[in-house]
Amino acid sequence: MNVLLVEDDNRVADYICEGLGSAGINVQHAEDGTSGLQLAREGRFDVMVFDRMLPGLDGLSLVQALRNDGIATPILILSALGEVDDRVKGLQAGADDYLGKPFAFAELQARLEVLARRSADESSPRVLTVEDLSMDLLSQQVARGDTPIKLQPREYKLLEYLLRNAGRVVTRAMLLEHVWGYHFDPQTNVIDVHISRLRQKIDRDFPSTLLETVRGAGYRLGPPLPDEDAP
After folding, report:
1. What is the pLDDT of residues 136-173, one digit of tens each?
2. 94 and 155 in one domain?
3. pLDDT per residue over 15-58, tens digit each?
4. How many domains does the chain have?
5. Which domain holds residue 14?
6. DSSP readout, the chain?
């Protein structure tokens, strides 16, 4: 995770940089709002942390400037102004979270991790597709062309994993781990049963087949990627 910290109190900045650094998190530090704005515009960060009272450009103005630029990176305001009205102003300015000083470092780190995960989730594709097969992750609807396909929960999870790895061979062990969530005898026929049911639903009544059994290797959904070894 890459974090931009804009904090003019060097004691607080050192505390945050040291703590996040020890957790394997990369931190870039700016001491004023003006240089912080420049770094935010130039760099790629997963989360930004701004003190509210900053020289040059205060934290709320910094947030507003970035939002006006179309930069949607999650921002946490860190401030000694921790009353309800202060927090509301921070959120209304475009911040995603607000933490009052003094603060527990564990809480700061946890909030940053939540913001980073949320941002990653929102940037993920909503619809997965292979040729005319589509899966809407929000509505959980599956279709081939205009034909809706009804799947059982395990079939849905299996197809989702195959779609996320479209064009690549996935092994039985990979399916057991990521779809069933545990390890057991790879010779069990549970995978064969579910693959057969899934194939009947997404391939049987359509002119082209998408789900392929790669002998001795596993399964592949859709045409192989250019870097995928031929079976």
Report:
1. 877 889 999 999 999 998 899 899 999 988 999 998 88
2. no
3. 999 999 988 888 999 999 999 999 998 878 889 999 999 998 99
4. 2
5. 2-123
6. -EEEEE-S-HHHHHHHHHHHHHTT-EEEEESSHHHHHHHHHHS--SEEEEESS-SSS-HHHHHHHHHHTT----EEEEES--SHHHHHHHHHHT-SEEEESS--HHHHHHHHHHHHHHHHHHHS-SEEEETTEEEETTTTEEEETTEEE---HHHHHHHHHHHHTTTS-B-HHHHIIIII-S---TT-THHHHHHHHHHHHHTTTSSS--EEEETTTEEEESSPPTTSPP-
